[in-house]
Amino acid sequence: MKLIIDTDPGIDDAIAIALAHALPQVDLIGMTAVFGNTHVVQSSRNARYLADLLGFDVPVAEGAALPYGEVSYAPSDYVHGPEGLGDLMTIPQIGQNDPRNAAQFLCEMAAKYAGELVICAIGPLANIADAIALDPSFVTNVKSLVIMGGAFEHAGNVSPYAEANIIHDPIAADAVFGSGMTITMVGLDATMKTLLTPTDFDDLEKAAPKIGGFIKRIADFYLGFYRSVGVIDGCPMHDALAVLACTDPEKFTFQMTGIKVTQSGDEIGATVADTTRKPVAVAMGCDAVWAVDLMKTQISGLG
Ligand code: BDR
Ligand code: CA
Q1: C-alpha 193 to ligand 1 mean position (Å)
Q2: Which of 56, 89, 102, 276 has its CA 20 to 30 A from that of 40?
Q3: How many domains does the chain have?
């Protein structure tokens, strides 16, 4: 499977990237960086740093710095750390970003691998909305867009109604859900069922001292954040679960419904049913034991 990850790394993004690299059926052909957990320059730096750590080299194309309609953005450093990867500081820029911006790169790859390319979007959706605006054929060239984002029946995680990736750019998210692309939404209904415990991170470190040890180190910050908001038994897999929805959709249960994103008021960023829109496969659950085990087994193989 040809895959591009659109990302704002991010602790759970780092786990998702490691998992995509480890899965034998995934051909990760590039990453695109977006603002979100960090500023976009830090996102692309972190994506390149993670690729180098994991031992692979793919184009990293930098994209949107700001949400649609905004003039500033404050990253979620209290969730992911000052530079996005837990307590890591002064993360170096390794090599150069791709000269194309994210939307150009996405459109060119979608045209090159028309009908084949899967995009896994695990940050706010500005780059995907930019690609839709740039090239009308992008919508049909992409085989499928798998989004980590949204909360359908589950409560939000930034507000009672909204999940982070959606509320950080509700205009872009609504444009994407209304675009007619073939979309799978892996939101909190599924991801909050896949908690990773401190023991899971200990296991990863034991099995794979370099990569598992790195993940354990950065996950400490994430576990701390979740403890501070009352989730005491672990941190959700979030972004890595979206990668598994690309490769193993049969392990998920879905509800088919059009989705629109609330644009104002208390419920801004909510993902709600809109039956006038093309149906999206909304993940309502998954085989959580399988997902956690597979992630651990695959990443353990990285050493
Ligand atoms: C999503 O928001 C970010 O903090 C995570 O990386 C994930 O993509 C979870 O709501
Ligand atoms: Ca993310």
Answers
A1: 15
A2: 56
A3: 1
